[in-house]
Design a protein that fits this description.
- With 108 residues, the chain is α+β, with helices and mostly antiparallel strands.
- It has three helices and four strands.
- It has a four-stranded antiparallel sheet.
- A hairpin with an 8-residue loop joins β2 and β3.
- α1 packs antiparallel against α3.
- The longest helix has 19 residues.
- It comes from Salipiger pallidus.
Length: 108
């Protein structure tokens, strides 16, 4: 198992738009492509409170590449994402890391 941690940094005041997009659009595409989420978090205290952090669970890097690339190339996803940013951009930058659990991790 591999866990992908993704952090989306939003333009000021645009976090609600990102949360709405995930809630009403993105998660439907995740379900369609079999993308398994572990959870989503907003930052209460930290360096940037305009961010969304989430974790995805993958069987392997090969599975991740195949599924993520198909999702990113989906014409309906591209169109719907663009509609949510028609007024102005939402995300300024994305960071992602791939994590492997230790042998003593509760999640393996």
């Amino acid at each position: 198992m591999i866990v992908e941690m993704r952090v989306y940094y939003c333009e000021p005041t645009r976090l609600p738009a990102l949360l709405d997009r995930f809630r009403n659009i993105t998660l439907g595409f995740f379900d369609h492509y079999g993308i398994e989420q572990i959870g989503f978090w907003t930052t209460l205290v930290g360096a940037d409170n305009h961010s969304l952090t989430y974790l995805l669970k993958w069987d392997s890097m090969a599975q991740r590449e195949q599924v993520w690339n198909a999702f990113q190339a989906d014409e309906d996803w591209i169109r719907r994402r663009g509609e949510t940013e028609a007024e102005r951009p939402i995300v300024t930058r994305v960071e992602n890391s791939f994590l492997a659990p230790t042998d003593f991790s509760a999640l393996r």
